[in-house]
């Protein structure tokens, strides 16, 4: 069954914090649940692999996965984002599917060719075999990007989330069975292939098969013009993500690189848990706000009005997660990885602070794409990437803790550039956003004081790492939520109803 154009009939919208977006809260909760399952599953696989694999085997996996992820990023282009920003048009979507299929086949061939070079000419049979297996991940990932774009465009976040939950659980089962059966690194790769295959099959079952249609030359030009900005940004993010581990390993050795990579992986789990749902919701809410008030000035007013409400809610969700992670990092690392990984705890806390600074950047890409200013993003991303990599190279010789501190400095610079981009080209009124976010600062400060106090009490009482961790999480949650609600009313958040914003 092929994809069908739906009639443009919408139900009477409900409002959330004054935003008339049907099912927005439900879709956001589904996306959050999917990301939670994903991170738990991936962390479970990571912990199991760290306990069962040798450092050499894990190094092989990191090496080949980095190359494969690079090819996947290129193959995915900006296909999903192009569909997310566009009005529903099945003919254009079929053309995007054709381009996606072509890029997937081309990059899969490139991966297999690189694997052949490693295997036949360089004599690295193990690396070549792993890279060949990983190359099978590229084509389904490229095709899945199209279906992800369609699901988000139609606001079907609950369907997308359900598919990913099933896929992640299936992948975890395969990975665990493979590790226990002695497949070693192959188990991790087969698990990823299983996940991608299940996501693609589930998406096709929900959306219908999007039959590729030969794209016109003008359409290819339009798509690639948009894609190059998205792809440039993704490539910069890719380099920033892997530069720290590579530099630490080069300057300080594999054990220090292991500590740093473990800390990065733990923080990344929480970052993706917040960032991915935030990005998907941003595509929906800002696109609808811009469409409701078309035109340069009208679109800016629409996005500004939504931003005044969207950003404070995002901060209210993100702040307790990252601040709490910094506070409980010691107990968390001990519980998850064991006592031998204790040096990673301090880095977890520092990197959590870094991610808190990067929260506004989660929505920069969808905001600028919808406002037609996505071309402003790559130069700023390149600047931020250059700063991040430069600080990695400068701080790596002094220890992996200093690398994390350097990344906090880079994040502060990235925060400043994100705010400038969103205000200048996205129409966001950051003065009002900050005023509306005052209640988050009050609740976070009270939570920090309370958790720190009870952490000391738990230490004096001689509680175990698990008991101390649970006490801190419980106290933080029980205090943060009611204080958040009370301070919201006390500060007096200015969130006018959309009806009041109409020109």
Please describe the structure with a list of short key phrases separated by commas or semicolons.
single chain, 503 residues, 2 domains, 18 helices, globular
Characterization of the model:
The protein is an all-alpha fold and 503 residues long. The chain has helices at residues 24-52, 55-76, 79-85, 90-121, 125-135, 138-153, 157-180, 185-207, 217-252, 254-292, 296-337, 344-357, 364-370, 377-395, 400-425, 430-436, 438-460, 465-491. It folds into two domains: 18-215, no CATH class; 239-503, no CATH class. Helices cover 80% and strands 0% of the residues. The two termini are 44 Å apart. Residues 7-22, 294-299 and 493-503 have low confidence and may be disordered.
Secondary-structure blueprint of this entry?
Elements: H1 24-52, H2 55-76, H3 79-85, H4 90-121, H5 125-135, H6 138-153, H7 157-180, H8 185-207, H9 217-252, H10 254-292, H11 296-337, H12 344-357, H13 364-370, H14 377-395, H15 400-425, H16 430-436, H17 438-460, H18 465-491
Summarize this entry quickly.
The chain is mainly α. The protein has helices at 24-52, 55-76, 79-85, 90-121, 125-135, 138-153, 157-180, 185-207, 217-252, 254-292, 296-337, 344-357, 364-370, 377-395, 400-425, 430-436, 438-460, 465-491.
SSE series: HHHHHHHHHHHHHHHHHH
Q: How large is the count of helical segments?
A: 18
Number of domains: 2
Radius of gyration, whole Å: 23 Å
What is the first-to-last residue Cα distance? 44 Å
Strand tally, please?
0
């Amino acid at each position: 069954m092929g994809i069908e154009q739906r009639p443009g009939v919408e139900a009477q919208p409900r409002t959330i914090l004054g935003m008339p977006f049907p099912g927005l809260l439900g879709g956001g909760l589904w996306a959050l649940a999917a990301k939670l399952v994903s991170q738990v599953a991936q962390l479970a696989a990571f912990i199991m692999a760290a306990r069962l694999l040798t450092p050499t085997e894990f190094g092989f996996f990191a090496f080949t996965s980095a190359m494969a992820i690079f090819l996947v990023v290129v193959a995915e282009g900006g296909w999903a984002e192009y569909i997310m920003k566009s009005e529903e048009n099945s003919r254009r979507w079929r053309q995007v599917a054709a381009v996606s299929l072509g890029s997937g086949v081309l990059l899969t061939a490139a991966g297999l060719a690189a694997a052949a070079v490693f295997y036949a000419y360089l004599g690295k049979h193990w690396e070549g075999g792993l890279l060949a297996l990983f190359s099978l991940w590229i084509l389904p990932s490229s095709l899945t990007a199209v279906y992800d774009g369609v699901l988000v465009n139609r606001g079907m976040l609950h369907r997308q989330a359900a598919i990913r939950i099933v896929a992640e659980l299936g992948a975890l089962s395969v990975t665990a069975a493979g590790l226990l059966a002695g497949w070693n690194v192959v188990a991790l790769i087969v698990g990823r292939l299983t996940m991608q295959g299940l996501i693609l099959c589930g998406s096709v079952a929900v959306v219908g098969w999007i039959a590729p249609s030969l794209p016109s030359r003008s359409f290819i030009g339009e798509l690639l013009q948009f894609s190059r900005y998205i792809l440039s940004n993704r490539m910069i993010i890719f380099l920033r993500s892997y530069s720290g581990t590579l530099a630490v390993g080069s300057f300080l050795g594999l054990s220090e690189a292991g500590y740093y990579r473990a800390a990065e992986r733990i923080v990344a789990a929480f970052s993706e848990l917040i960032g991915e749902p935030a990005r998907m919701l941003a595509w929906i809410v800002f696109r609808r706000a811009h469409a409701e008030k078309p035109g340069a000035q009208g679109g800016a007013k629409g996005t500004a009005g939504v931003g005044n409400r969207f950003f404070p809610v995002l901060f209210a969700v993100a702040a307790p997660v990252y601040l709490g992670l910094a506070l409980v990092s010691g107990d968390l690392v001990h519980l998850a990885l064991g006592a031998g990984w204790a040096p990673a705890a301090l880095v977890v806390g520092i990197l959590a602070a870094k991610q808190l600074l990067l929260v506004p950047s989660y929505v920069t890409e969808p905001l600028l794409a919808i406002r037609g200013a996505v071309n402003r993003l790559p130069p700023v991303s390149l600047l931020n990437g250059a700063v991040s990599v430069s600080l990695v190279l400068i701080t790596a010789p002094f220890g992996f803790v200093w690398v994390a501190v350097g990344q906090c400095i880079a994040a502060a610079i990235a925060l400043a550039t994100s705010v400038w981009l969103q205000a200048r080209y996205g129409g966001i009124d950051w003065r009002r956003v900050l005023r509306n976010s005052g209640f988050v600062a009050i609740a976070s400060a009270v939570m920090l004081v309370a958790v720190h106090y009870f952490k000391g009490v738990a230490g004096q009482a001689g509680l175990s790492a698990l008991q101390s961790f649970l006490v801190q999480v419980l106290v933080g949650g029980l205090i943060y939520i009611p204080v958040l609600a009370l301070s919201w009313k006390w500060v007096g958040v200015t969130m006018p109803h959309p009806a009041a914003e109409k020109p």
